[in-house]
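In response to the reviewer comment on reproducibility (Comment 2.3), we provide here a single inverse folding case reported in full, input and output, so that an independent group could reproduce the run without further information from us. The structure tokens appear first.
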């Protein structure tokens, strides 16, 4: 520009008015071009600093933008670039993920113009508190994830400033204290609160008092020993409560909201349950210290799922649960299938699990229709009799999945055990079965009884002529249905076939385990014996033999001495020839 002014000052000729016009025109052009250059430079600089999508992953969801900066804002020297995000150009951001970036604090400037932000993920960072004032800049925030940080206290005052939140995740922190501050908001919108995996020992009555809209509460994996009498009754809309993996010793259902649908109290130390009429549909009380199921359990008239696994139950009450679909009584002290488990008492029951009990006999004593029966890890089960499943049926126009696996003493299954059963799939894997009858699995025409196949993997089968039918009739059908269930179907005996997969002989025409195998073994044995006979040399001791051996030894010694003498003589002659004086 200085050069331009210098040139203008030396213009010669022409009137002063035209010179002035020329100067004005030149000045305007210079200023215009300068501004263009400046704007371009600023734009480049701005783009370099503010285009967060070059660092993070941006996607469009509906009418908004989701920006995912998970583990993207840490530099090589472990510094965080959070303040350089410059999100002004992304005012329509609906979701911002800043997880796992070693954040210790956040700046309000980040959220000033993010008025449409609905979901904010700050999980897996190092923040010791919830920065309420900073988050308040976003007045539409619906979901906040603060899990896996360093929180030790949670104060419900947060809802005074961020009243729009409906889902709050505070799991996997170090929260010991749930602080109750008087909240000015008449209605808190919170629907889901996750406080699992913290260090909570006690919940004050006042803390949950304002959460009238709360539907899902997770307090699992804490250190809660008792519950205040009315604490959950303050939550009229609560649908799901998880308080499993704590230290509770008792629970009175009279202290739970009437509208509760799902309750998880597994892995506590509960001895007594006091039932009251309830709308609960799913109840999990596994792995407590319960030794008796009360006869008033039918007061849960809506119950569809019941898990009482891992308790001390030995007797099953004569009760009726009209809507129950899934029942798990595994890992208790039952010695047989409870006789009160019948279609009369449980008309809709579809899944029954009896694994890990003290059962020796799987016989059903009452008629029952199921879609799935599971009996795994039963240490006393050695055989399945022919009449075991006579009273077990599949629902009308349906079939049953039968799983009886990992029973290390189970050796025998009667060939008639599955008669009259319409099976979809049968799992007999990882038992101790070495022989199985073709009549158990095949129809009279040779086709498989189970339309979805059978799993026999992990059993120590004796691959002899009695199992030739598996190679000829079973393997080809299973290969077509599902080849993966043949991966670990192997021979255990004889030793020369140890660990060889049966599918190895898929499509072989010969009877491998019968005539052809015996002939092969016989031929190998004969060849071995013939070779052995040709190599054996019989030598008998005698005086002549000892004389011959003695002469041979003397000759070897003489030859050895002669060799040494000749070597020395040659060495002496070589030395004389190499002398220089």
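Designed residues, in position order:
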């Amino acid at each position: 520009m200085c050069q331009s002014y210098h040139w203008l000052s030396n213009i010669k000729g022409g009137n002063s008015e035209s010179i002035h016009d020329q100067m004005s025109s030149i000045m305007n052009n210079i200023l215009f071009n300068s501004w263009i250059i400046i704007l371009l430079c600023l734009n480049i600089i701005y783009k370099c600093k503010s285009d967060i999508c070059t660092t993070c992953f941006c996607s469009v969801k509906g009418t908004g933008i989701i920006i995912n900066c998970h583990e993207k804002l840490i530099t090589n020297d472990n510094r965080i670039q959070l303040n350089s995000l410059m999100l002004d150009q992304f005012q329509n951001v609906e979701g911002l993920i800043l997880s796992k970036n070693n954040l210790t604090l956040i700046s309000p400037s980040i959220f000033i113009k993010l008025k449409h932000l609905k979901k904010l993920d700050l999980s897996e960072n190092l923040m010791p508190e919830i920065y309420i004032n900073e988050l308040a800049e976003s007045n539409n925030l619906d979901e906040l994830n603060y899990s896996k940080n360093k929180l030790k206290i949670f104060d419900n005052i947060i809802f005074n400033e961020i009243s729009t939140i409906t889902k709050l995740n505070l799991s996997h922190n170090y929260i010991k204290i749930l602080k109750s501050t008087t909240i000015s908001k008449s209605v808190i919108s919170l629907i889901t609160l996750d406080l699992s995996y913290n260090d909570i020992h006690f919940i004050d009555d006042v803390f949950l008092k304002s959460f009238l809209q709360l539907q899902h509460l997770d307090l699992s994996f804490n250190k809660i020993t008792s519950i205040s009498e009315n604490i959950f009754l303050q939550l009229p809309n609560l649908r799901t409560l998880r308080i499993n993996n704590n230290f509770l010793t008792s629970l009175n259902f009279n202290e739970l909201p009437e509208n509760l649908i799902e309750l998880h109290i597994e892995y506590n130390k509960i001895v007594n349950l006091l039932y009251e009429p309830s709308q609960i549909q799913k109840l999990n009380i596994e792995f407590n210290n319960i030794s008796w199921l009360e006869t008033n359990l039918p007061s849960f008239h809506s119950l569809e799922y019941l898990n009482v696994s891992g308790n001390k139950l030995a007797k099953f009450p004569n009760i009726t649960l009209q809507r129950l679909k899934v029942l798990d009584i595994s890992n208790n002290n039952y010695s047989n299938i409870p006789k009160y488990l019948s279609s009369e008492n449980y008309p809709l029951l579809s899944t029954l699990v009896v694994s890990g009990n003290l059962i020796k006999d799987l016989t059903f004593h009452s008629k029952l229709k199921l879609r799935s029966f599971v009996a795994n890890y039963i240490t006393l089960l050695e055989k399945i009799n022919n009449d075991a499943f006579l009273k077990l049926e599949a629902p009308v126009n349906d079939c049953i999945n039968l799983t009886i696996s990992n029973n290390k003493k189970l050796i025998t299954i009667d060939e008639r055990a599955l008669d009259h059963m319409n099976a979809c799939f049968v799992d007999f894997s990882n038992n101790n079965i070495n022989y199985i009858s073709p009549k158990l699995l095949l129809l009279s025409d040779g086709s498989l009884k189970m339309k979805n196949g059978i799993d026999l993997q992990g059993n120590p089968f004796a691959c002899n002529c009695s199992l030739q039918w598996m190679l000829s009739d079973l393997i080809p059908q299973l290969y077509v249905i599902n080849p993966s269930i043949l991966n670990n179907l192997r021979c255990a005996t004889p030793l020369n076939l140890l660990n060889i997969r049966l599918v190895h002989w898929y499509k072989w025409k010969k009877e491998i385990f019968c005539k052809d195998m015996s002939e092969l073994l016989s031929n190998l044995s004969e060849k071995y014996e013939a070779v052995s006979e040709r190599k054996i040399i019989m030598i008998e001791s005698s005086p002549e033999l000892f004389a011959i051996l003695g002469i041979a030894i003397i000759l070897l010694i003489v030859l050895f001495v002669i060799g040494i003498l000749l070597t020395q003589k040659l060495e002496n002659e070589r030395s004389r020839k190499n002398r220089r004086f």
